[in-house]
From TrEMBL:
Name of this protein: Acyl-CoA reductase-like NAD-dependent aldehyde dehydrogenase
Aldehyde dehydrogenase domain mapped to chain residues: 5-455
SUPFAM superfamilies for this protein: ALDH-like (SSF53720)
InterPro entries to which the protein is assigned, alphabetical: Ald_DH/histidinol_DH, Ald_DH_C, Ald_DH_N, Aldehyde_DH_dom
Top-rank taxon: Bacteria
Any GO MF annotation of the entry: oxidoreductase activity, acting on the aldehyde or oxo group of donors, NAD or NADP as acceptor
Keywords for this protein: Oxidoreductase
């Protein structure tokens, strides 16, 4: 069992080589970090919003300048292919710039009251925000939560994932170098350190992106301190392939949704419901598409499939696959652990999946397209809805009536119609069920990071008026 002070070893998931070690923060280090954040909070909250935004914007420029360095570090610690990681870093810089623009515009409301009185609803910083971020898109996720917290006048203690601590610290230290002392601090550690932060009496907001188990523990800890909690706990996202779609195009969408970043994206496609009328062609096309996702692409049309983050994650993914095969599923491509170093796992296509299988009931978080053939769109929608998670869903259909019914009925934060990924900048959504609560992105995140105070002001009567 990992303790708060046991040294953490980080290995390159492509080679198994040790690339670093960190000593997790214990109670004293967490107390110190929170104490520094509390001490810095008064002056930072009183800093003009435009000045706060200017510092965050300068930090964003610095992130762009070292984007390739951060992407290489991401590849070394998590296995994410360099080009994908670089895109994440550049997205992080864009997010910081976005919040630098939005922060000074975040405003309250005036209320209509008596002629001689003034009534206001004014947002203000909540205080100290503990930001606990994952390994699968570590820079982009951290930029959003940290950026929104900073521009609204909060101070931040950041704990990056223990699977990429050097990357997390490099990014946070870079941002902190543009800020007053104590406004942004970083602590290393795994679950025990996160628990110390989540339950700390000096923390006012806990923002977490990660597993359901960790999210539950954080919510319980925060209930004891009164801290506000923002959670994105992952999902079990369905994708529906309706009758009438081009099966080859649909296979490309499913492959992208299932295999990008090794299937280790919060909104990866986890379960596929395919209409029987197109199933045969779709499965053939999907199997062919899966063969294009390879570890070191060199041929035309091939795409990069990096290793999973570590061997423990690979064991988790393979256990889902082997159980499904044992219970009657068929592997069209993949499904076997490769020989050699690293935590590689092949792009896999399974058919014959049933609702009782873990591969459809739980988040696999690996490069697996688990397909269930259904007889109708109605059956696909019913089974897609029947799940306790509520992060995202995708519908591929030429029928706009089906699209309309699906996006209204699916109990998730995000529904994508005819695209596995995509969305306008600034979009935000609220996960539901086991997937969490609260806005984690977009302008609405500024509301989450602030508390609204109602102010009523009226003139004091003079002595002569008594």
């Amino acid at each position: 069992m990992t303790t708060a002070t046991a040294e953490i070893e980080i290995r390159d998931p492509a080679t198994d080589e040790v690339v670093g070690r960190v000593r997790p923060a214990g109670p004293e280090q967490v107390d110190d970090a929170v104490g520094r954040a509390v001490a810095a909070g008064r002056d930072w909250a009183r800093t003009a919003p435009g000045d706060r935004a200017g510092l965050v914007k300068a930090a964003a420029v610095a992130v762009r300048a070292v984007a390739e360095e951060l992407a290489r570090l991401n590849e070394t610690e998590t296995g994410r292919p360099f080009d994908d990681g670089l895109g994440g870093v550049l997205a992080a810089a864009g997010t910081l710039e976005q919040y630098a623009e939005l922060g000074p515009l975040h405003r309250g409301r005036s209320l209509q009251g008596n002629w001689s009185a003034t009534d206001l609803m004014v947002p203000g910083p909540r205080g100290v925000v503990a930001v606990l971020t994952p390994w699968n898109d570590p820079v982009a996720v951290a930029a959003g939560l940290i950026g929104a917290a900073l521009v609204t006048g909060n101070t931040v203690v950041h704990k990056p994932s223990e699977r990429c601590p050097h990357l997390g610290r490099r990014f946070a230290d870079l941002l902190a170098s543009y800020l007053p002392d104590g406004v942004l601090t970083v602590v290393d550690g795994a679950g025990p350190t996160g628990a110390l932060l989540a339950g700390h009496a000096g923390v006012d907001v806990v923002a977490h992106v990660g597993s359901i188990a960790a999210g539950r523990a954080i919510a319980e800890a925060a209930a004891g301190t009164g801290a506000k909690v923002l959670l994105e706990n992952g999902g079990n996202d369905p994708l529906i392939v309706d009758d009438g779609v081009d099966p080859v195009w649909a296979a490309g969408q499913v492959a992208l949704g299932s295999y990008a970043n090794g299937g280790q994206v919060c909104v990866s496609v986890e379960r596929v419901y395919c209409h029987a009328a197109v199933a045969e062609e779709f499965l053939a096309a999907l199997a062919e598409e899966a063969t294009r996702w390879v570890y070191r692409p060199s041929g035309e049309g091939e795409k990069a499939l990096g290793p999973l983050v570590d061997r423990r994650q690979r064991e988790h993914v393979h256990s889902h696959v082997t159980e499904a095969l044992r219970d009657g599923a068929v592997a069209h491509v993949g499904g076997a652990v490769p020989d050699g170093a690293g935590a590689f796992y092949p792009a896999t296509v399974l058919s014959g999946c049933t609702p009782q299988m873990r591969i459809l009931r739980e988040e696999t978080f690996g490069p697996v397209a688990a397909v269930r053939v259904v007889e109708s769109f109605e059956q696909a929608l019913t089974e897609a809805i029947d799940d306790p998670h509520g992060l995202a869903a995708t519908v591929l259909t030429p029928d706009m009536a089906h699209a309309q019914e699906a996006w209204r009925a699916l109990p998730v934060g995000t529904v994508k119609v005819n695209a596995a990924f995509g969305g306008a900048p600034g979009g935000a959504a609220q996960p539901r069920g086991l997937s969490g609560a609260g806005f984690g992105y977009g302008p609405e995140l500024l509301d989450e990071m602030t508390a609204t105070k109602v102010v009523h002001v009226e003139p004091c009567p003079t002595r002569d008026a008594r």
